[in-house]
Write a structure and sequence with these properties.
Helix content of chain B: under 10%
Number of helices of chain A: 0
Helix content of chain A: under 10%
Largest sheet of chain B: 7 strands, mixed
Strand content of chain B: over 45%
Structural class of chain A: mainly beta
Shape of chain A: globular
Largest interface: A-B, 27 and 33 residues
Distance between the termini of chain B: 37 Å
Strand content of chain A: over 45%
Oligomer: heterodimer
Radius of gyration of chain B: 13 Å
Number of strands of chain A: 12
Shape of chain B: globular
Number of strands of chain B: 11
Amino acid sequence: AQKVTQAQTEISVVEKEDVTLDCVYETRDTTYYLFWYKQPPSGELVFLIRRNSFDEQNEISGRYSWNFQKSTSSFNFTITASQVVDSAVYFCALSGRPGGGADGLTFGKGTHLIIQP
Amino acid sequence: DAGVTQSPTHLIKTRGQQVTLRCSPKSGHDTVSWYQQALGQGPQFIFQYYEEEERQRGNFPDRFSGHQFPNYSSELNVNALLLGDSALYLCASSLPLGHDTGELFFGEGSRLTVL
C-alpha cells in the first residue's frame, strides 16, 4: 500500500522568508511518481511538479525548488522569498503511474501555508 | 479554453437521499477521475473513467457509482447518503494515454453537505 505523510499541518511565516514543506512517502513500487499540488481557497488543485523515482535531480522553478531523496523517501518543497500569494494548502502525492493512471493519486493530508504580510 | 467545470458548486442533502454531480473535462482530455476530499484531509481517489468505462476504483462502497458519456463528460452518483459523505468532490481530467504528461487538471469541486 502507498502512503504519503505531511507532518506539518500548518506553517505560518512572514513574507520574504524561505519555507520548506516536508513530504515522506512509502511505496513498494520500484518505479513511482511524486507530485506536488497547490490548493488555493477556490478549491481546485493546481499541478506544480511531477518527479520520477529514477530521477533524483533537484529541480528549481523560479522561487520554487524540490529536493528528492530516495534514501530517506522524502520529496520536500521549498519556497524562497515567500509571498502572500503563496498562501494555500499544499499537497504531496504519490502514484505508480505517470499521471496517476487508473489507480489514482495517493495524497497526503496537506500543509496549510500562511504567508503574513 | 475552458478548464474542468463541475456542477453544482454547492448542495445540501439529507441522509438517505441520492445525489448526482457533474463534470466536463478540459478540452482534448478523455479521462476523468473523481476524488473525495473531507474537511482538513487530502483528496481520496474514488474511481476513473476512460472510454465510458470505469477503469479502477478506490476504497469506496458501491453506493458510489459513475458514468462517462461519449463527449467525455462524467457524472458521480452517490446513493443512500450518509453524514460522512459530506465533502468536496473533485473531478480531474487528463490527456489520452500516450500523451499523458502526468498533470491532472482539477475542477473547483462540488461541496456536498449531508444533514
